[in-house]
Amino acid sequence: MAMNTVKLNAYAKLNLTLDIVGAEGGYHMLDSLVTTVNLADRITLRRRKDGLVRIRMHGLGKNIPPEENNAQRAGDAFVEKFGTCGADVTIHKNIPIGAGMGGSSADIAGVIAGMGMLYSVSDMDALKALADRLGSDSGYLLSGGLARIRGRGEKVEPLPFVPLHFLVLFPKEGVLAGEAYAAFDASRAKGSRRTEEAASLLRSGNADWAAKSFGNDLFAAACGILPAVKEAFLDLKAFSPLGVSMTGSGSAVFAAFESEELCLWAKSRYRGKCRAVALKSVDPKARIKRRSPFVLGGEEIEEP
Fold it and tell me: Who contacts 28 (Cβ-Cβ below 8 Å, separation ≥6)?
């Protein structure tokens, strides 16, 4: 029986490492260790009988114009690519904008995955190719979990899931990715090669040592654009965590801790200016999905 409604979580990500390893075709080439965390936009999709996609945003993204909304682009591209009908899409945004946690890419991935469920499109290669075309991290965020991503983010190497605990600080302002990359280029800084070491240590089960390799080549550039990034970094460093870094192009900064207890301890004692949130890594692939017996047409529900 065809589904009429799909509900899912579009998870945020943290770049545990971000190495800039070159440039190609006008884009920076990256080597990055990433994980999804338990902060997500909640997406509901309902079938339409025509080919239109209507997006309604609530929360942090409610003021995004339709012509600038990547979720809208994703829905329209899905209909064009697979020749399906459209959907009414409601997105409750919880992932901060301009934080470097992939909120826009997560919504692209969520809309594509949700419409795939609505219309029984299960060709993951085709879905990923569409997501990669629309957003740098979107192909990875279709599956999430712990992974090493390369190139523009389209080359994804899944890694065994590792439970990690983070205290994330969100400065009041964001950092535009384009400005951060431009500042990096202007500084003529050399990219790092920390991702291989961190990935190897995580594969071998040495998460504590891997955290010491966490780092981000855009950190200095982001600090120059928004001094609050460096202030947040130093505030977290004072708690002596396993490692501290910035995700994406900023502005969110995170610290990794040995346990959830230590993470919550640090959160309780933080007295800085940023919003502080304790998060942990999640593997969406391992989360249970079930059909609701109470909704006609079959409603796909992702378990919390």
Answer: 20, 22, 181
| pLDDT higher than 90, residue 23 | no
> What does the pLDDT look like over 172-188, one tens digit per residue?
999 999 999 999 999 98
CA gap 279, 290 in Å, rounded: 25
Instruction: Give the span between the Cα atoms of 81 and 205, in whole angstroms.
Output: 41
Bridge partners of 267, per DSSP, are: none
Q: Kindly state whether residues 192 and 233 are assigned to the same domain.
A: yes
Coil, helix or strand at residue 203: helix
- The set of catalytic residues is 13, 137
**CATH number, residue 225:** 3.30.70.890
293 Cβ contact list (under 8 Å, min separation 6):
none
Supply the pTM of this predicted model: 0.91
**CATH code of residue 65:** 3.30.230.10
Q: Which two tokens stand for residue 38?
A: 């338990």
